[in-house]
Amino acid sequence: xxxxxxxxxHIAALATALGFFATGAHAACLVEYKAKRxxxxxLFYDVAxxxxxxxxxxxxxxxxxRLERQGLTLLKILSVKEE
Length: 83
What we know:
Distance between the termini: 43 Å
Order of helices and strands: HEEHE
Strand content: 35-45%
Strand order of the largest sheet: 2-1-3
Mean pLDDT: 80
CATH topology of the domain at 27-82: Ubiquitin-like (UB roll)
Number of strands: 3
Radius of gyration: 20 Å
Helix content: 40-55%
CATH architecture of the domain at 27-82: Roll
Largest sheet: 3 strands, antiparallel
Structural class: alpha+beta
Low-confidence stretches: 12-24
CATH class of the domain at 27-82: Alpha Beta
């Protein structure tokens, strides 16, 4: 038989585990975007997977940083969809 305190610990552990699974389910978004590279001018259209909340602002911030490391400038995000 499980005592009251052990029962509460089991419930807390289960709730924590379910929270991790729920967070993981919303962890990735597909972002459709346009970007460019100067000298010589190159235009890009692509779809990228980004982590974090599926909002336009969060996707823009992560994608902009990622593209800058590749020497690209983000021009426009066309859509953001949960993966």
